[in-house]
Amino acid sequence: MPNSNNKNIKIGVSDFHGAYEEQALNAPASLEYVELKRTRNGSRILQSPIKGYFSKFDETDCDIIESVISPIYTNKPWVYSIACFQEALAFSFLGAPSPKFSRLLLMQYLFQRDNCKKIVFWSEAGKKTLASYGGITSGKVHEKSTVVYPAVRVSRLPRVKKSDSQTTFFFSGDFFRKGGVNVVDSFELLAQKHKNIKLIICSDVNIDFNTQNTKLKQTYLDKITHNPNIEFVGRVKRDVLINSILPKVDVLLLPTYNEAFGFAALEAMAFGIPVVATNPMALPEIISHENSGFLIDISEYDLEKMFKGYRVDCIPPDFNTSVTQQLIKYMETLISNPGLRRSMSEVSINIANEKFSFEQRNTKMREIYSQIID
């Protein structure tokens, strides 16, 4: 295998989504990211809600494989890039109910193989799930595990001068799982007192309203469509989001019930947008409470027990009330204090520019790749 000191390292990426496209564009001269060509989409035996889980790829044109979210079976040196250990175990054997211990056996086998070089978690909270959720005690697997934060490009678009008299809130994604109920309820109540507020929702009716509770779904579709201060735009292309929507947003609302990392929060902060979010998993590592935004404390609730899987059919009343009340408090604080919005905007950009910069990620990943090659 080529020595990293005299040749660029070529990394074949299994899932070349938006974050890795950005990473490829901002890679240093010594690293080259390429999209692996998929030769088999998914697995007949290991079935998962994660698209392309355990696919096979043409591995000939790379030195190292970086497999994103889905693990991979290969004889090449590979790095596993993952938000949390739950993603690794999101599969069943032939679609049948499969006990966690049987799925763990397979993952431990893959991770203990010598060609699995690193398990790169995207946050400290994510790394902790190796033990807390996976129950893995193997020293060899823990030694391979590390944390490297994803990188985000700070927006270079001209800053839109926003009126202090109007506050535009923004929500996107899976409506029920990301806390859309709390967002709409909070906005309705605040709109009775504050006339110059607006809410933009980027969610698709057919994809993002993921529930079997038809009454719940219709109730919130009616609330959204009948409120003249809510702009319901559906899903939009990334260039529309970046060029047309985010520049006019004042605050991102993310009272999510389940979050592996929090890319929406990170991208908003790169635009100088303060974030009001709940505090599961990595979000406290992204958002600095009272400095770049606000965190709604839901640590007392067992989220995995209350919200299993991706569908939300029922929201416990005490949890719902607690999240909505805290959300209203923080939204009203930001409506009433444009100076605070501006200061949080600057802090958000600084965090994105430093803690989640391409420079810091490139330095850490280049060290990992170089150690593998050498």
Describe this protein's structure.
The chain has 374 residues and is of the alpha/beta class. It has helices at 18-25, 85-88, 100-112, 124-132, 139-144, 180-191, 214-225, 238-245, 263-270, 283-286, 303-306, 317-336, 338-354, 358-373, and strands spanning 9-13, 31-35, 37-40, 46-47, 56-58, 64-68, 78-82, 92-93, 116-121, 145-147, 167-172, 197-202, 230-232, 251-254, 275-278, 293-296. Strands 2-1-6-7-9-10 form a 6-stranded parallel beta sheet, sandwiched between helices. Strands 13-12-11-14-15-16 form a 6-stranded parallel beta sheet, with helices on both faces. A two-stranded antiparallel sheet has the order 3-5. The N and C termini lie close together (8 Å). Mean pLDDT is 93; it is low at 1-5.
Helix and strand element order: EHEEEEEEHEHEHHEEHEHEHEHEHEHHHH
Q: Tell me the major beta sheet.
A: 6 strands, parallel
User: CATH homologous superfamily of the largest domain, by name?
Assistant: Glycogen Phosphorylase B
Q: Provide the structure class.
A: alpha/beta
Global geometry = globular
State the helical fraction: 25-40%
* Oligomer kind: single chain
Annotation field: number of helices: 14
Q: Say how many strands there are.
A: 16
CATH-defined topology of the largest domain: Rossmann fold
Number of structurally distinct domains: 2
C-alpha-based Rg, rounded: 22 Å
- In CATH, the architecture of the largest domain is 3-Layer(aba) Sandwich
First-to-last CA distance = 8 Å
Question: Which keywords apply here?
Answer:
374 residues; alpha/beta; Rossmann fold; six-stranded parallel sheet; 38% helix; globular; disordered N terminus
